[in-house]
Amino acid sequence: MTRRLDIRAAAVPACLFALFLQPGCRPSVPVAPPVPPPSAAPRPAFEKTFGDASLDGAGTAIVYKGLVILIDPSASQLAAHATDADFVLLTRAGAAPGVGAFRADQKVIGPDEAAVASARAGAAKFKPLAAGQRLMLSKKSVFAFASAVSGRDANGKAVNGYLLEFDNGRNLLFLSPVADLAPVREFVYNLRDDGKPVYEGFFALRSPSDAAAVAEEAGLIQPTFAVFTGARPDRTTLGNALSAQMFANDWYVANPRDGVPF
Asked: Is the CB of residue 251 less than 8 Å from the CB of residue 225?
């Protein structure tokens, strides 16, 4: 009996030794599943007809049947459309590019306060567009209508928003945060009286802290698609702000250099 106990005791270390030498004897160790990569921001199913809006930060380049409209263009957008940009729309004086960035014959539209900055950038053709004014942007047989909604930012500087109406029935609206939403509300009332729904609303954030302000704008406009450009806000914060404004349509935080068809 004593001998058998000794044999069993001696066999235990051998078995333990075999666990580390023989793969088949190694104990199974639970392995945690791989962590999936962060999911991309959901992208709505935009429907393309004849237009594309290419984003670069807060700047937008719109190409519609050969008509090229730049809104607060970035340096790369200006370079890409140096010869074919038909119109440049500035939302504020500070959105004008550096000295000599425009062609001398470039047609520029913006709040009256942007005239000096536009001339400094090299453009000799500047057209101020105030609240309630509407202008046809045309090239050969292609045209769009631009209407202005004006306001003031937190520093008291003039800020223009623009409604662009195209003959495919798609209306695009471009807005930046303003200190007082009263002009935006009045603009919305006129849109509804005229039966002009907004297909895509582009809301430019100058900083992530603008999330609440642009969410309120989106709640007033109620576009079919809301596209947030410029500074990238926290998605949860923005989503909660949109819910608080009863905005239940599709919305999208645009990635750098995204394309948005319409």
From this structure: yes
User: pTM of the full predicted structure?
Assistant: 0.83
Single-letter amino acid, residue 209: S
Both structure tokens of 253: 């935080």
Q: Provide the domain count of the chain.
A: 1
Q: For residue 149, what is the domain's CATH number? A: 3.60.15.10
- Please identify which residue in the block is written with the tokens 């599709």: 250
- 229 is written with which tokens? 């450009």
Q: What are phi and psi of 224, to 5 degrees?
A: -60, -40
Residue listed under structure tokens 């459309």: 81
In a domain, 234, yes or no: yes
Q: Specify whether the CB–CB gap between 164 and 172 falls below 8 A.
A: yes
- Ranges under pLDDT 50 in the chain: 1-3, 5-12, 14-21, 35-40
For residue 189, being part of any structural domain is answered with yes
Strands 250-253 and 225-230: parallel
Question: Which residue's structure tokens are 């709040």?
Answer: 111
Residue 6 inside a domain? The answer is: no
3-class SS string, the chain: CHHHHHHHHHHHHHHHHHHHHCHHHCCCCCCCCCCCCCCCCCCCCCCCCCEEEEEECCEEEEEECCEEEEECCCHHHHHHCCCCCCEEECCCHHHCCCCCCCCCCCEEEECHHHHHHHHHCCCCEEEECCCCCEEEEEECCEEEEEEEEEEECCCCCEEEEEEEEECCCCEEEEECCCCCCHHHHHHHHHHHHCCCCCCEEEEEECCHHHHHHHHHHHHHHCCCEEEEEECCCCHHHHHHHHHHCCCCCEEEECCCCCEEEC
Q: What is the pLDDT of residue 43?
A: 87
